[in-house]
Design goal:
single chain, alpha+beta, four-stranded antiparallel sheet, three-stranded mixed sheet, about 35% helix, globular
Amino acid sequence: MGQYLNLFVADDSINSPYLYRSFKDEIIFGRYINFSDFLTQDEVNIITPNTSGEIVLGKKRDATMLEKAKLPIVLYKALNGKITLEEINKMRDKLVIRSQEIKDREREPERLKNALMQVEKYLNDKCTELPLVHYAYADSGLKYEIGYTKINGIKAHLEGDLFYYENYEKVRNKINVKSYFKDYGKVDFFVEVKPEIEIAGKRYFTKSITKAEHFKDEFAACYSFLDLAIKAGKRVLWEFG
């Protein structure tokens, strides 16, 4: 999912926080979190952003078998620029009730903040089960982070954020040393994370953090923005696109 996540007010009177795509993909769209495990349906609804510029308010009817069968063709045409957004929306409008009105798209900042705080608490409470992020450093003081190394003249990246692996538990405490582009596949192995590790005869030092720590700045930025909105008595827009 390549879109950005945006938190803002309609009149732009409050500076919006910058939110990384990884925060949207991993946390807000729950790559490894099931919101229904700890949030009510209302809380799931408030934390789920709507598409930029519009919101689906309800469903008119279920898609017919023919409409479902046509969906892959429509998606293919959309990806290849062979169908316009207007044409897509005409199809959607047969099935759902959409609105572009600000009043329909806005949500209460208190409720959004409360839902986000519960998600952050969940990340902390479940930190021994959820993914970790590992960093490698050139020095024992952990000041000079290393993103890659050279192995037999090949640039190999040191990847310690492997949440996307299908069998994640097997790599939870490992760094993947991997080459890309013209050298793709020439280097690809794992190193067990310890305070000190050795890769191709070079010594590195490591630090591991939880996902709660990894995204603490994004949560804090959201809270600060929402607090300002609450103080100003403004509702907020929470959209991706």
